Amino acid sequence: MPRSSRMILLVPALAGLLAACATDGTPPAPVAAAPAAPETGEKPVENALTNRLRVTTTVGEPAAFVREARPAQQDYIPVGVTPQRTGVQRSATELQSIEKELDAQRQRSRAFANRPKPPSPYDGRVPPRLRTAPPAQAE
Question: What span, in angstroms and rounded, lies between the C-alpha atoms of 61 and 39?
Fold first, then answer.
């Protein structure tokens, strides 16, 4: 038997063994197809097919203890929701005074960065490392 035909027979056998190792031997539970949501425009046939192929799942109702544990009012902003800005509205004169303060701070920072720096005492030479005497050997 040629080598390539043995490989053709070996690949499905190995795939079957790996698939058997991936489960605990119990058959998977049947997947019930949920009706498609009218606002998404999904077709029930496609939804059922993707559920059967285990590409997608249908989200069921949460258990009672989960519903009881969830707060009525969420203290975080959900993903995809843009919060409304509730900042203080400032007048034009207030904005100009804030801008002047920021400009003054910028100039102070730049002046500090451009100040004359003292020369370094390092002249570029590396002093030689002192060698320690080897330990005396006992005779």
Answer: 19
